[in-house]
Amino acid sequence: MAFKERVFSGVQPTGNLHLGNYLGAITKFVALQDNYDCIYCVVDMHAITVWQDPAELTRNTREVTAAFIAAGIDPKKHIVFNQSQVAEHAELAWVFNCVARMGWLNRMTQFKEKAGKDRENASIGLYAYPSLMAADILIYRATHVPVGEDQKQHLELARDIAQKFNNDYAKSIEAHGFGEAFFPQPEPLIQGPATRVMSLRDGTKKMSKSDPSDYSRINLTDDADAIAQKVRKAKTDAEPLPGEEKGLEARPEADNLVGIYAALADTGKADVLREFGGAQFSAFKAALVDLSVAKLGPIGAEMKRLVNDSAYIDQVLADGADRARAIAAENMKAVKDIVGFVRR
Ligand code: AMP
Ligand code: TRP
Known about the structure:
The chain folds into 2 domains: about 5-195 and about 310-340, 3-Layer(aba) Sandwich (Rossmann fold); about 215-305, Tyrosyl-Transfer RNA Synthetase. Strand 1 (about 5-10), helix 1 and strand 2 form a beta-alpha-beta unit. The chain has 14 helices and 5 strands. It has helices at about 20-30, 45, 55-70, 90-95, 100-105, 110-115, 125-140, 150-170, 170-175, 225-235, 250-265, 270-275, 280-305, 310-340, and strands at about 5-10, 35-40, 80, 145, 185-190. Helix 3 (about 55-70) crosses helix 13 (about 280-305) and helix 4 crosses helix 7 (about 125-140). A 3-stranded parallel beta sheet has the order 1-2-3. Strands 4-5 form a two-stranded parallel ribbon. The protein is mainly α and about 350 residues long. Adenosine monophosphate (AMP) binds next to helix 1.
């Protein structure tokens, strides 16, 4: 059965939006607007799976919203909202908690990483996180999900949940006139030279909000001086840049910087190496600073302007939530009928 094509993705309001979020996710969100109906969500309910200071959570929710808009997402043509304003996410997540199996969730590497050694002390929310994520996507019956490489496993779980729901309730789905399947199999969109941006200090570690060293990442709100300093201090090796992509193998730091350059310039690594092959890192880094400042500077400035206008941001979120809720409510009604919940 053919589902209406729709894009959904989410970003957690947990502070320090960085170049990895921007290149791995937000630039993709922007590009998809021309060809799809898109829903972009600030996932505040996912954020509280680990402790968040309430005032910071509010501030970060507005900051992610500002980043979406500053990067070029149009909240009038598409939908931008925060998750907690549409209760159907949590409602469907409960149904999915009863569809997903413990064994599936036990395999999630993000849970293992985030829970660390003290697993007994992790929240139940952190464990059930992928089930809420599946609900985020499927409450809109979204078909395409742009994310960074680190979310691939969660997307596969969302597909498994959709399939098991469709199978378990096949008779009821058919009986209620929804044909063979109620939920689509959402497709991950993970493409381009920067699906996994690495730390500037260690090319084998993912660039992350939670790295204690601010030098490991470029934040979207960094000014030109900070960007320049961080790029200049970025770890490299002693060799000049290779002329071909094969030469980046076993050189994680070089590979990362070339990937960042390629993504910012909207080309591929091969093109970047055609230009910079044989160059020393000093020259390449100078070019990378210029490119980064040119691309990120205006976005950071616009973000700062927007976060000062919290009335505007909150209005965007409320308006987006109203439009999201209209779609979600209709699908939730159908799920209730399919599951056999009595409703008015
Ligand atoms: P989060 O803020 O953890 O909700 O992540 C938001 C989006 O950014 C997700 O699609 C992630 O896959 C993506 N992302 C986070 N870190 C990176 C990274 N280092 N490289 C590429 N994408 C990333
Ligand atoms: N788990 C995602 C992350 O940490 C955020 C997220 C929540 C998401 N719900 C989603 C991404 C739905 C895509 C679709 O990056």
